[in-house]
Structures are given as C-alpha cells and as structure tokens.
C-alpha cells in the first residue's frame, strides 16, 4: 500500500499539538498571513517526531540532539519534538529521562496528523509498551519560508539521522543557499 508523505519544498502544514502545561499550540510558527508581521524572524525549525516515552532510542536521540542545540542555534535554527504521547506520559518522560532537554517537547500528535504528514504509524506490541498508536521517528527541517527543506521518515526505531552530519549539512545549506532537493514528482 502506498502512503502520502510530506513533499520537499512544500509548505509545512499547521499542526496543533499540546504543550507540557496542557494548552494547545501550533507545532511551528508558520508564515505570516494577510499582511501580519513575520514572526519567524528568518529562523529555521527542526521538527523531531519521536515514538514516545516507551522508546529508549528516542530518549537517547533527544538527549544527543539537545547536547548539540547551541550549534544549531548558531545557525538560526530552533528544535522542537513531538510524539503521540498523552500529556501525562510526556510529563513522566521529562521527569524520568528528559529533564536536561531544553528545546520544546510537545505531545498528543493526532493519528490524523501523523497520516497527513506521511509518518509511519505503529500499534503497541503490548500494553506495557504504550496505550496508543504512535508515529515512528522522522525529522523535518523547515526553512525560514516555512518550506520543507529536508525530510527523513523511518518505519522503525532503528533509523535516525547522524546529528553531526545533519549539523554540517545544514551549515553548508545556510552558508551556500543550497537548494531544496528531491522535488521531482513526475
């Protein structure tokens, strides 16, 4: 079965998620509309989609990414991460394992939005894993024009981008105005 996916060069859609305090939020700040001021300020956004509290590989990746956060900030890039976990699960995850992660962590990504973004979705293998469907890992880099610059979507927990290579590649992209690749659809 073929699935849809988010296309390189497309505008990243508005996705509503929950913050740690339980309030709703857009996953990223979108482009200005109808003459509104630009609130992105030329910033890039790296969006990490992770499986949830039950995934130790996700926890390690988020910690490693947080360790490199200042290097991404130097490139004018923000990082956010989101899962389908409940607010309670996210709070427990932060308390248990992610207290040193300083970028925003969001929760309650809907299955509908997972599908719309073309993420792979899994069922828990047991009640002890988690209690809901969840997305497999993905990473999307959104440029200051709210376009998808890079996208990597995995079908299981064992594929993640190399953070050092990602950092070098994004530095090259910013410094050389490297174009969006992978846009041929015919």
From TrEMBL:
Thioredoxin domain residues: 6-175
Protein name: Thioredoxin peroxidase
UniProt cross-references to SUPFAM superfamilies, sorted A to Z: Thioredoxin-like (SSF52833)
Residues making up the signal peptide according to the UniProt record: none
Record key words, sorted: Oxidoreductase, Peroxidase
One GO MF term attached to the UniProt entry: peroxidase activity
Coiled coil (UniProt feature): none
Keyword Oxidoreductase: yes
InterPro entries documented for this protein: AhpC/TSA, Thioredoxin-like_sf, Thioredoxin_domain
